[in-house]
Amino acid sequence: MYSSMSPFSKTTLDINKLYVSSNYPNKIPDEGETASEKQEETPPSKPSSEVSVREESDTDPNQSDEAETETSPTKSPTTPKAVKCKNSSDFSLFSYNNGVVMTSCRELDNNRSALSAASAFAIATAGANEGTPTKEKYRRMSLASAGFPPDQRNGDKEFVIRRAATNRVLNVLRHWVSKHSQDFETNEELKCQVISFLEEVIHDPELLTQERKAAANIIRTLTQEDPGDNQITLEEIIQMAEGVKAEPFENHSALEIAEQLTLLDHLVFKKIPYEEFFGQGWMKFEKNERTPYIMKNTKHFNDISNLIASEILRNEDVNARVSAIEKWVAVADICRCLHNYNAVLEITSSLNRSAIFRLKKTWLKVSKQTKALIDKLQRLVSSEGRFKNLREALKNCDPPCVPYLGMYLTDLAFIEEGTPNYTEDGLVNFSKMRMISHIIREIRQFQQTSYKIEHQAKVTQYLLDQSFVMDEESLYESSLRIEPKLPT
């Protein structure tokens, strides 16, 4: 037996005025119904052990209400006066409101559950967002279960919908800012608009504490300076190298060249925005306008490769050429240790150019150890099996890393050409979009982690010096002059 009464109410419980009913109605009757009407509406059922206990007051109902109003002014006027319990073994749901105990019976049938889906979601959301439930939340939990008017229940549903929508918007913004910060670094207008929107959200008086903290954290992430910004930029390095005479190749060690080449390669690679990887813009006629940073990366690769070949062929003495080849191979091996696979391919592809490969007298004097190392490096970056060995190396290495961009561009072109954008039903082909997203996510992972290499101006000046670099035709002419073709 449970009763709904205020602990401070003047109403007393008289045992003589309790009666037992053998039939239990299928629903909780409304307040306006009389006892006779309730019995008429209830269909006859077989006798059972189910009992219903109802409490009657000695005093006049109006007087009882006035007494309760005086002693408990904060009690809700729509609280049901009669509460039935289906079985003594059933537990009722309790909610407390300023000393008033409000109870409701729990139906055994799941289809007739007192709690609606909306109120259950409200309870779960409130518990997840604000920790310990408050009296206000207990009030909301009881609305659907106590038979309150629809307008009060709809008000709580709107509250739940607003909270769920706010949380979703904040989660999307948090993911956008944390995972794709490049969007805000390159677009100051977008950054200001998002900050303005979040500041407007924070001033919402109905915003919960955790939601306000989440919005403030996003603003802090947008406005704070990135520690990685202390690294020198590519533009600063190029500006320092302009108008300065570079020191010769012999004045730099293989370690210095490898480190500065890795620094340059990564600075060029990290500047590529992910928008340029869509639509195969690098293969179009207007590629310089659509994908300028991919084209800069390609030009940098070719410039370094031409510089290596030119450095080897500028030496008239065969021993000097052998020394240059062995030193560049050592640079390539150090770059491999630094996870700069782009530089490994820059150097090995330069050694395989026809102008260098045909120098038989030079290659005869190259040591066996150097030749074995060249074979090892070439197998690593070989295109056989769709760059099988290089993919395995990238899979097992931790950033920072400079991958070979051409491998990813080949993958993207293969997906774009071989898979349609829409299915046969006219729907977006999300399978294709996921494949493209996976490749771009891997590229972004390597772009976001920078090398902690100190810049050495004298070495980068040499690597960026194009004063002695020859084109393909000049390289081959120089190769023929050094080692003329043998007469047949």
UniProtKB/TrEMBL annotation:
Q: Which GO terms describe its molecular function?
A: guanyl-nucleotide exchange factor activity
The Ras-GEF domain is annotated at: 253-485
Q: Where is the composition biased (Low complexity)?
A: 70-82
Q: Which Pfam families match?
A: RasGEF (PF00617)
SUPFAM superfamilies attached here? Ras GEF (SSF48366)
PROSITE patterns in UniProt: RASGEF, RASGEF_CAT
Give the record's keywords alphabetically: Guanine-nucleotide releasing factor
Point to the regions of Acidic residues compositional bias: 57-69
Q: Quote the cellular component terms of the Gene Ontology held in the record.
A: plasma membrane
- Any one of the GO BP annotations: Ras protein signal transduction
Q: Where is this region: Disordered?
A: 22-84
InterPro entries registered for this protein in UniProt: Ras-like_GEF, Ras_G-nucl-exch_fac_CS, Ras_GEF_dom_sf, RASGEF_cat_dom, RASGEF_cat_dom_sf
Mind telling me what this protein is named?
Ras protein specific guanine nucleotide releasing factor 1
Task: State the organism of origin.
Answer: Terrapene triunguis
